[in-house]
Amino acid sequence: MRIRASRNNEFKIYVIPAWKWKEFLAFELIGGTAFYLLCRKTAHSELFGIAANIAAPQMLKYVMAAYRIDAKKVPQPPPS
User: Fold this and answer.
1) DSSP string spanning 20-80?
2) Percent over 90 (pLDDT), the chain
């Protein structure tokens, strides 16, 4: 059985663009932590802070995706 497994030299490569992991770091880690701390301090509630930590990065991703779609629809001047 090991001989067959050693002949199979195929493997998959996943390419992740830099903007995807930068967006993840900014929204999930930094944004989530900021919203957690902000909401925990203002509402004095740990549960509200956790809910904000979950919901806020999703909201940010949704808004940025809509902004990207709108930015693609902007008419460009003809090349000169």
Assistant:
1) HHHHHIIIIIIIHHHHHHHHHHHH--HHHHHHHHHHHHHHHHHHHHHHHHHHHTSPPPPP-
2) 40
Q: Would you tell me how many other CB atoms lie within 10 Å of the CB of residue 2?
A: 6
Question: Whole-prediction pTM value?
Answer: 0.61
What ranges do the domains of the chain cover?
Answer: 17-72
What one-character DSSP code corresponds to residue 30?
I
Identify the pLDDT of residue 30.
Answer: 92
Cβ neighbours of residue 47 under 8 Å, at least 6 residues apart?
none
What is the C-alpha radius of gyration for the chain, rounded to an integer number of angstroms? 21
Q: How far apart are CA 10 and CA 33, in angstroms?
A: 40
Query: Which range, of 1-5, 9-13, 21-25, 36-40, averages the lowest pLDDT?
Result: 1-5
What's CA 21's distance to the chain center, in Å?
7
